Amino acid sequence: MNKIYFLLFFIYGFGFSQTLEETIYITTETFIANPNQGALQHLKKRENNFKAEVKTQDEQLALVFLQTHKAYFLFEAGQLKEAILTYEDALKRYQDNELSEISDFDIIENALNPLGTLYTKTGDFTNALNTINRYVYLAKKNKNTPHQISGSINLAKLYYTLGRHKTVIKTVDNGLNIKNLPEDKKAHLLQIKSESLIALNQIPEVSILGETNLSSNLNEARNTYLIHLKNKDYNKALVPFSSYKKEQLKNKITQRNKAQIHLEEAQLYYFLKQPNAVYTHLNAALKVLLPQLKSNSLPDKNILYAENKFIDIFDLYAEIETNPDVALQSLDLSFYVSKLLQTNWTSQETKILNETNNRIRSEKCIDILFDRFSETQNKSLLVRALQYAENSKASVLKDMFLKKRQLQQFPNDSLLQKEFKLLKQQEQLTSQLVQRDLSTEAISDLSTKLSVTSMALKQMKSLISEIHPEENDVFSIDVLKSQLRKDQAILSEYFYGKNSIYQFIISSETIQLHRLPLHTDVKSDISNFITLFNEPSNINNDIQNYTNQAFNLYETLNFKALSNHKNVIIIPDGFLNFVPFEALLNNPTKTAAFAKMPFVIKSQTITYNSSITLYLNPSKNHKNQDVLGFFPVFENTNQTLSYSITEAQAIKKEMPSKLFMNAEATKANFIKNAPNYGTIHLSTHASSGDFIKPSNLSFYDDTLFLNELYSLDLNSNLVVLSACETGIGKLYKGEGAMSIARGFQYAGAQNVLFSLWQINDLSTSQIMTDFYQNYNQEQSVFTANWQSKINYLENQEISNLKKSPYYWSAFVYYGQLSEPQPDNHYIYVVISLLIAVFILFLCLKRKTHEQKPSRVPSK
Length: 859
Hints:
Among the domains are: about 105-215, Serine Threonine Protein Phosphatase 5, Tetratricopeptide repeat (Alpha Horseshoe), CATH 1.25.40; about 410-465; about 475-605; about 615-815, Rossmann fold. The protein contains 35 helices and 16 strands. The radius of gyration is 32 Å and the shape is globular. It starts with a helix and ends in an 8-residue tail after the last helix.
């Protein structure tokens, strides 16, 4: 067969004189006539030569034709990552050379449609949505019904993959309204809807859909199988699954789909508790994806590639494996493939959405290592478990931090500069896309620009990796212990899992791991305690209830294990992100006087952080440490912040500052000035957002949304957010709340002081005034934060009800521990006195010299 290929290639490629355009087309047609891996390698070599030679639009179009057919072959062969890169290159070539002006080449059918599908299959959900929205708009604009239909199908599949089943149903219903909808496409849409209805447990509606008589034997068998699976009737599910499998194999399906069938069968046998059958089908799936694999053991990671089916296989393999070392090995392979897939992701939204599965995997690893440690008491197992926990902590923040640190190390590297600029550009476009009331045309335009930016970022990342190998965020336990010794602190990192809360306690000497129960009562205790801070009356109307809950949670979260240390660093997780640990009680109490209660803050100074990596690697301080302040005040409105003026006066008195008051506190002034200051103070209104609108911050004239904040480039040493709910937002386990505070961290602020709930204007002003007085004296944020709260509790002019932790514990500090600076006042006094004494001594000496008689020369 290869000889035939070479002969055809020779005849058509070199047998007679032809233009470059003709040569490219003939080369492509030759490949299409006999596509195989050998032919693919020859095609790649010719493609590289063509790239260097093409100049005219016609030649560029011929190369696009070649690339789209090459990408299609790669897609069918399961080489998804390479297929994506090829489609992207073809699409960019088509756009850059404005080839739509010279040809009616169907770029939707040949590139955009398959690219949207590939993005969905590889978990690149942001690019998938942008790409599909883009060609749906083009299809509607050109009144191309087939492409509108394929767009509806692909959108529904995307939302199904994301688990957004209500949106699937809405998307399908919109697609069913397209005129002249072919019966096979209608059946396809109805099948997607059926599977979402099953996922939502709306089984009767599936039967109604089946009455349309559009269901094939394949779909009927699949639906019956899925319904039994949903109802946990696993034995009943076997029969329809066998029928579904038989119908599938009748069709011409890809190797990837064959592997999927084996995987689903393995999952069914897992539920039936038949491990041998599970092993059989998992190994069959692996050998479909890795034909070179001969044994039934786990493969070497070096032969794996970016394919999410591997992740499902290795995860299930770990579930049935009785040998803990092999189970961990299998989970590590899942992590490895997940990382291969991540190299194609550029948006933080995609990374965060995919983090859920890594979290589940991390918990399994920690479970195994905890059990092993219980048997062996080998402390190295605890360090390994901590690394798994840390891997799922603030991965997006850490990634941005490492990029920024790399740019600081190589400030003149043009590639790093361009990458950082593209990242910020991506966030700017995303911030525009999340705004409401955009026209379809505007959405399409922004989606196109985002796709182009994403492609540029991938190319940039590939070039950078050749010069600067990617930094490993694995930390050294010895470095961590050394830093804790320096800070005289103890660190408690929580991992909020599905079945347990794991608590890692690390001091300068040792490491501990505790598995805390997470049953329904514990979840209720955490949730109820957080709810107490929704309104001041929740605490003040039943103080004894508060004291009971505060001490109960102190014990539940094992905070007593940290009681011997003054400085405590907490890395929270899950719902613990919203717990004010300083307001817990370290002893039971009957008193109703808040000032007398044994709050944790009275004996310990609490600092928070998002991860160990961020704790160990502070950024460089900004040269300008003056305070930049924004105080919209909102006078003569129902949202007036009158005490905000007091805050401004305190800052002006204590610190060198530039303050924007009232009408000057605009969004534009903030964006313009924020990058130039090391300390930023915002006294305003904020919102945690909702399901539609993201977290946001109010200025005098406009609102700053979270994604806009992501696009800023800050290097602030400290950001103080004197506003409501700046630490609240949609919660993602591991990554934390999508809050304004996190937005500042992403933008480059290394230390942030922010609020966890809606706060009182007057008490905030009092605490902030005290904070800046202490900060000015000691230059230590974590000490000033602690002292301001202690002073508030001890202030006899404040009533008991106003000393409720609702009023003083809202502010939490995420950042570094810095030692209080010695008070230089006395040093200056002593130096001044010494100078004065020295001057006085010189004056007296001079006066004595003038009064002494001159010596008369002897005769």
